[in-house]
Amino acid sequence: MQRQCPLCEAHCGIRVTVQDDVVLRIEGDPDDVLSRGYVCPKGTALKALHEDPERLRTPLRRVGDVFEEISWAEAFDLAGRRMRAVRREHGRDAVGAYFGNPTAHSTAVLAIEGLKKVLRSRNVFSAASIDQFPQYLASELMFGDHTILPIIDIDHTDHLLVLGANPAVSNGSITTMPDARRRVKDVVARGGRVVVVDPRRTETARLASEHVAIRPGGDPHLLLAMLHVVFRDGLDRVPVWASGLEDVRRVVADRTPERAAAACGIDAPSIERLARDFALARSAVAYGRLGVCHHTTGTVTHWLINVLNVVTGNLDRTGGAMFTTPPVDLGRVLRLLWGASSHGTYRSRGAGLPDLNGELPVAAMADEMTRPGPGRVRALVVASGNPALSIPDGRAMQEALQGLDFLVCVDLYLTETSRLADLVLPPVSQLERSELDVVFPAFSVRNNARWSPRAIEPAPDALEDWDILLGLATEQLAGPGSGVLRRVVRRVLRVVDAHQVTSLLILVGPQGPFSKARGSRLPRGRRGLTARRVRSIPGGIDLGPLEPRLPGILRTADRTVHLAPAELLDALPPAPTGVRLGAEADGFDLQLIGRRHLRSNNSWLHNVPAMVKGAERCTALMHPDDAAARALSAGDVVEVTSSVGSVRLPLDVSDEVRPGVVSIPHGWGHDSEGSRWSTASARPGVNVNLLTDSTLVDALSGNAAVNATRVRVAQAP
Ligand SMILES: Nc1nc2c(c(=O)[nH]1)N[C@H]1C(S)=C(S)[C@@H](COP(=O)(O)OP(=O)(O)OC[C@H]3O[C@@H](n4cnc5c(=O)[nH]c(N)nc54)[C@H](O)[C@@H]3O)O[C@H]1N2
Ligand SMILES: Nc1nc2c(c(=O)[nH]1)N[C@H]1C(S)=C(S)[C@@H](COP(=O)(O)OP(=O)(O)OC[C@H]3O[C@@H](n4cnc5c(=O)[nH]c(N)nc54)[C@H](O)[C@@H]3O)O[C@H]1N2
Ligand code: SF4
Ligand SMILES: [Mo]
Q1: 123 CB less than 6 Å from ligand 3?
Q2: 8 A C-beta contact, residue 216 and residue 593
Q3: Closest by alpha carbon to 646, among 708, 691, 689?
Q4: Are 42 and 159 contained in the same domain?
Q5: Angle 712-715-717 from CA coordinates, rounded to 5°
Q6: What's the 185 CA to ligand 3 centre distance in angstroms?
């Protein structure tokens, strides 16, 4: 059977061969309209994940130091009683929620909105605020809605400028581009140029025409100087639907390449050339992702990336940054549920970080669980997340989780987080669920609609995330008569499933029969997409290349793209006058950045033997000059220390990283007592978030700025 791999944003099509409920083989699906046969090693690991004896199959309740298996009815009853009691005693903000990365990869994404609706808590968090919050906020301020996200038209561009992304490994993020390696190589093969701006010579940089080893955090300076050159040399081609141009011209007027050079570690002639190459290309697109999100300047940098695309005439045109026409308009769904996109409606009690669309930044999460007073989180739902490893200041986070009155985790495993839970609710495995992808067509390089049937029949009493999250939501209903209400809602949920909801959303969506949206490209004679049609075509439906959609989809009051929102102008980093180089006064003389690996997926594929075999991957990587200066060599165990904590791990030495930088991957640190993944804990690695500081954030969005962490490295005693 043909379906998709839901592990990362690429959502590759896979063929799963099953006999007598046993998976024999998983391979890439050549019929898939987006991935055309590509699959990475993680995709084939879905079999091992499904079969993993340590994957949970039954709800678990904590009794003292151990877990015991209970029925679903008992589990929901327990969750309901405990959470309603916390709410009764301490108010609705005392029940919080954290939604992790995999929630976006199934219909759980719709169910969490239901849970949020009944919780009505200020204390809702998600992995998005250690990820794409800066992109959301830049979109909100410029396009009027955080869901209007530009996607790179990599398959048609003549010039790709990558800042802080490594699609050759990640396979694309906020641009779904399975087999990104081939797509990057194709740009070069058709005579185009790929420039990768990254402190590390990454897997993507090795495929590129040029690698520019920027100082971490230097991106806004580089972009301001590139814009300076574009205007100075009269290379701007600004579309009519953009406003605020004069303000942009004004703020870049003194941002010369010479002034930017030291701040970004790139010499002025190179900056000039990068700017001219970009602006003079037939089509060009600048693309930024995590490397630039994870900085104190995250939102400013994404704004400048968008501005560069707009003023060179490359937003909303083929080969530039474009907008999709997906089957489901998630922005509209969210607006129906929550009203217009909003920012800073309320703030976290401690650090005063602003909400973005009803979600507080994770950088404030541990503090909101421990800071006394009204509004303190005492009960928490964690759905498909592992905050114990994924959030800055891991020690504080783990202590805060431990201090909760009630923690319920919806997870497949006893992880570093769920081991601390009072109740663990495991959904079916990825191969046991069926779904219509409602998220990633909105981010894909081609418009598409794809259906994933289940490959394996789940056990009769097994539940999907959808059922579990809505079950938890039902249990929140409280007040007079609520017992009856809960019974009625339970009945209703037995007949209303995720498929009915997604079918309806497609029917009224931009590709549906009633839509007049531009960019709908159904084959002639077949008007309007329906879920039934999507389900009937294995490999999915190709709805054509991305098409120009501006200004129609803008949600700003004046229907223009705002090039110069006041918040962003105010937040510009000062023009550099002199830059501190070398040792910092506090002795933290290196800057910490992350890296991803093709066989990892954040914190949770390390229990699959094939995903962790081979050389140790959780290592500190530094430049030979930095190693020599500290009398260190490859293989040494080093101690890496920040103002927050320290970790010990093996050293790797390579000139692929820029001097002054040390790179450690995240998602490791599987040595906690009580977690239950024996393969992972045999080679635990260390949790890099024991070093990162939850007070380092992008000032505007509150996104965690983990790449701004300063450390020192020495031989471990
Ligand atoms: N220092 C540093 N920290 C980072 C990052 C970084 O680059 N550097 N990256 C950040 C980013 S981009 C992200 S997205 C976050 C991720 O942060 P999280 O989302 O908190 O963590 P994950 O490691 O993705 O954990 C996912 C959990 O969900 C479980 N799971 C997997 N599939 C399912 C499912 O279908 N249903 C359910 N219920 N559970 C499931 C897994 O067992 C695992 O425990 O980490 C962030 N943290
Ligand atoms: N194999 C695999 N694929 C994944 C994941 C995974 O864990 N494994 N995770 C998924 C998730 S949740 C996400 S969000 C995406 C992330 O997708 P990407 O953003 O493409 O992935 P990263 O590897 O985090 O790339 C960030 C890059 O930024 C660079 N960088 C660090 N600091 C700076 C800086 O200051 N300036 C610049 N210009 N560059 C900098 C880093 O060296 C790194 O190469 O990947 C997804 N895909
Ligand atoms: S790149 Fe790998 S993990 Fe991501 S969807 Fe494709 S097969 Fe799955
Ligand atoms: Mo992410």
Answers
A1: no
A2: yes
A3: 691
A4: no
A5: 115
A6: 19
Nearest CA to ligand 3 atom 2: 40
Cα(681)–Cα(379) distance, rounded to whole angstroms? 28
Which residue has tokens 């400048």?
304
Nearest-atom number in ligand 1 for the CA of 391 is 47
CA 260 and chain centroid, separation: 29
Q: What are the pLDDT digits (tens) for 547-572? A: 999 999 999 999 999 999 999 999 99
Please give the distance, rounded to the nearest whole angstrom, from the Cα atom of residue 481 to the centre of ligand 1: 38
Q: Which residue is closest in CA terms to ligand 3's atom 4? A: 8
pLDDT, position 524: 47
Q: Could you tell me the pLDDT band of residue 520, with boundaries at 50, 70 and 90?
A: low
Same domain, residue pair 154 and 122? no
Please provide residue 419's backbone torsions phi and psi, each rounded to the nearest 5 degrees. -60, -20
C-alpha of residue 604 to centroid of ligand 1, in Å: 7
User: pTM higher than 0.85, yes or no?
Assistant: yes
With a 6 Å cutoff on the Cβ, whether 3 touches ligand 2 is no
Q: How many domains, the chain?
A: 4
Indicate the residue among 473, 506, 539 that finishes a domain: 539
Nearest-CA residue for atom 33 of ligand 2: 291
The pLDDT value given to residue 632: 98
Residue 206, token pair as written in the block: 């090795």
- The residue written with tokens 């080679």 in the block is 683
